[in-house]
Amino acid sequence: MKTQNFTQILKGILLAYLAVITSCSTEDSHVEIQQKGSVECTSFMIPDEKIQDYYDSGINVPRPEDTHLKALLHYNINVSDFEASKKFYKLLAFANFIDQNINVTDPAEAQGLDLPPYSLKTTPMRAKDGFIIDLIKFNTPYDGEAPHKDYNSIGFSSLHLKSSNLKKDRAYLERNGVPSTVIVGTEDAPEKIQFADPDGTTILMSQVGPVSHVYLFQRTKIDGVFSTNINVSDLATSVHFYTEVGFKLINQNENYATIALSKGRHITLTESCSTNSAYEKLNHLGIARIALTTSNLEADMEILKAKGIQFYAPQPTQGTGLFSIIKFAAFEDPDGNVIELVKLPL
């Protein structure tokens, strides 16, 4: 009985937590030259002013009639040292909720993430603006290969943060042993910097809005997550795929496209010439997947199956432990990036 009561308390905490998180032009581009075999090619980093134009879905994007997808829920970031990474992301003003050990022994359940039976430790971490990263340390199976260092690698390119005093926040990170490189602006007036988490996952941080000097009890002016970008090998193919999934196309040119669901932050698809492909399995270090909320998981699975999309498991997968009140299903985009659909108990 005590165990049941404790489980109910944990589920109540999770429900409260989920309620919080769910309420919540090319000539100007920064250009990087890479080599693709013997052919020189160019990849584009979208200017921040363009990102700001499409920061969230405040324009009331209508939900497509044939799907029930609602919003981007979180990034999953895999790490090698759970405590060190949790400490690092707290420096970036993320607050963790509750640590959980997950042990999935049923092969059918593990197939929901295209993995053999696995065990891991996880904690959702919430930025000031409500954006969530799901920090995960896989125990078994574990893949310790370093994440791609190249921002242009195919897949989820980086965690891109926003700051209202980038110069001071950069100095704060430096004092805490986190070096960075200015990629837009100057040393004295940085506009965008690049650094990495303890495993090498790329992180960008941009000055967004006027510089603020009002700190009160804040250690930093890191205000949340600025943008979500997916690098793709063929923009037209990816735009078609994501609109089939249920996104609305907001804007497109020859280098990138902006897509959105009915709520929450927009996603940018950027065409890249990188030869680094998306990670093969979800236990790879780095940003491994994004999760989208849906109000009808079973119906969306059938709709997307009819469009030729193959899920890792034929039926929704029930979560384990504290997350047993959540159902999910995962599939891949044309480049192998993993998209997870999540039905929250709300």
Structure summarized in a few sentences:
The chain is an alpha+beta fold and 346 residues long. It has helices spanning 2-23, 48-53, 82-91, 107-110, 166-175, 235-245, 297-306; strands at residues 30-36, 39-45, 69-78, 95-96, 100-104, 118-126, 132-140, 155-156, 159-163, 181-185, 190-196, 202-207, 222-227, 229-232, 248-252, 256-260, 267-271, 286-294, 317-318, 327-332, 338-343.
Overall description:
This protein has helices at residues 2-23, 48-53, 82-91, 107-110, 166-175, 235-245, 297-306, and strands at residues 30-36, 39-45, 69-78, 95-96, 100-104, 118-126, 132-140, 155-156, 159-163, 181-185, 190-196, 202-207, 222-227, 229-232, 248-252, 256-260, 267-271, 286-294, 317-318, 327-332, 338-343. By secondary structure, the chain is an alpha+beta fold. Strands 3, 4, 5, 6, 7, 18, 19, 20 and 21 form a 9-stranded mixed β-sheet that branches. Strands 8-14-17-16-15 form a 5-stranded mixed β-sheet, covered by helices on one side. It is built from 7 helices and 21 strands. Mean pLDDT is 85; it is low at 1-13 and 19-39. It has a single domain, classed as 2,3-Dihydroxybiphenyl 1,2-Dioxygenase, domain 1 (Roll), CATH 3.10.180. A hairpin with a 5-residue loop joins strand 6 and strand 7 (132-140). The longest helix is centred in the N-terminal third of the chain and has 22 residues, at 2-23.
